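USER: Please consider what follows.
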Amino acid sequence: MKNQLLRVGAGLLLSVGLLTASGCGGSGQTVYFDVIPKPQPGPLVEAEPVKIVIQPFEDRRAEKNRVGMRTHLWGGVTYFNVSGEKPGEVYAQALAEQLKAKGWQGQAWNVRVASAGAVADADIVISGQIFEFAANAKSRLFSTYLTASNKLTITAQNNVDRSATSRSLEGSQSDTVFWFGDEDVQRLLKATIKETIERYLSDTTISQRALRPSRP
């Protein structure tokens, strides 16, 4: 019985050691994430030949060197950033990927990501401003609490009549994990981007070579 109790006690100590090790002190390094959602292609219907150009979004965040950090249980931090370190390009590419895979309300459109100087032949030019794009993790005993949030404005310029439409969007997600892995932060950031883009597409439509609000 005594030996059995010793084995149980040793197992508990080992478990606590493994759990706390996952939240040990951070060294200040930066972890980079590929957070562009990869939607599965859906059935598309050919639409009128409208050319859409998406410009990299403007980063208006106060802190541009990272998107967040993990606060470790025993002190120190690990920083988070997106691959390429440019969230504005991430959002533009994510929107383009969604349109290529599923179209706009099931219709296929000619869409590409390009800089401001390459939009002469576009019917619709989409741009945006990012005011918040963050992911943070706080390690605690036996768990890590994760949050991700964003706040941005997306603007579409219609060349057919020189009109414009603008949509402000924001959202947040959170999760608590027992075993923390960097992929947990990546997953939450991807979900936040995906939700924002899907909401934008559901609130807008294309008619007569122009992008309009889908509701008055």
Q: What stands out?
A: The radius of gyration is 22 Å. The CA atoms of residues 50 and 209 lie 6 Å apart.
